[in-house]
Amino acid sequence: xxxxxxxxxxxxxxxxxxxxxxxxxxxxxxxxxxxxxxxxxxxxxxxxxxxxxxxxxxxxxxxxxxxxxxxxxxxxxxxxxxxxxxxxxxxxxxxxxxxxxxxxxxxxxxxxxxxxxxxxxxxxxxxxxxxxxxxxxxxxxxxxxxxxxxxxxxxxxxxxxxxxxxxxxxxxxxxxxxxxxxxxxxxxxxxxxxxxxxxxxxxxxxxxxxxxxxxxxxxxxxxxxxxxxxxxxxxxxxxxxxxxxxxxxxxxxxxxxxxxxxxxxxxxxxxxxxxxxxxxxxxxxxxxxxxxxxxxxxxxxxxxxxxxxxxxxxxxxxxxxxxxxxxxxxxxxxxxxxxxxxxx
Length: 344
Hints:
Elements: H1 5-16, E1 22-25, H2 33-36, E2 40-41, H3 53-74, E3 85-88, H4 91-94, H5 110-113, E4 125-127, E5 130-131, H6 134-147, E6 151-154, E7 158-164, E8 167-173, E9 177-179, E10 183-185, E11 202-212, E12 221-224, E13 228-231, E14 237-240, H7 254-267, E15 275-286, E16 293-296, E17 302-306, H8 312-327
Parallel strand pairs: 1-6, 3-12, 10-17
Antiparallel strand pairs: 2-5, 3-4, 7-8, 8-9, 11-14, 11-15, 12-13, 13-14, 16-17
Helix pairs in contact: 1-6, 1-8, 3-6, 3-8
């Protein structure tokens, strides 16, 4: 259940192992959190929980092969960029690093690395991080899943897990029922709505915008305590993002979008004449401890892969790899005990 990047990536991994797969998506595949994401592949950001960092590092290192495979099978360029990130720490964190100066942790002067930041006097760190276009990525995953003969059912909301003698036996939707000995819940912010299990997932709203026409444009991802900017190879620059407890409200607020836009201009003045192309909001799947929920449930045959919060795009390769192992009865190659559904 769930046709975002997590569900689609897992469907591909399961098809590789010979499983027959049906992906059931309540809306249009890839058009919820995956569609709204920025695509920064941050291995260990300040907001990454310590328990999640080993898995994040593994998944980031899997990305070149993961992206190449999707591109090869779909013919869609996912815009995996290798230029890296320029991180501007919050002022209160700068002096925590002995010997930290504006140029000491950069491979070249800032103005040379990123001409759009010429004149900026804030300390910066260069990080060898990648970024990807999540919208292209999920389209590639959808096409690759179909290429591998995974069945896709869209516009169908799952309403109930079917059990037989305590084991998973399939699902009921608002239109029909499907029998299956294995069910995997990849429903993101909606994962907790399926009886009889109730996972403590919740939607965490994020508003963003995209601009085009900045001169000079950006080559690197820019991350600061107040804003982040993610360039795409087609000239777009994404600006984000809020973190809001607003239920399932996906509306954008004009004042909030303006505030994000102005914060970006304050950091990168060359963005001022750029045209706003689009503004949107997505619903990240949050959990009480900000960790994903991965693995087997107390009902044999029923598994869950949700709660990735701000890291769904990053964690897609490792989630697909690990869950495919667990679902097919193998021992997980990586320790996911900290993310067990049983912790709730």
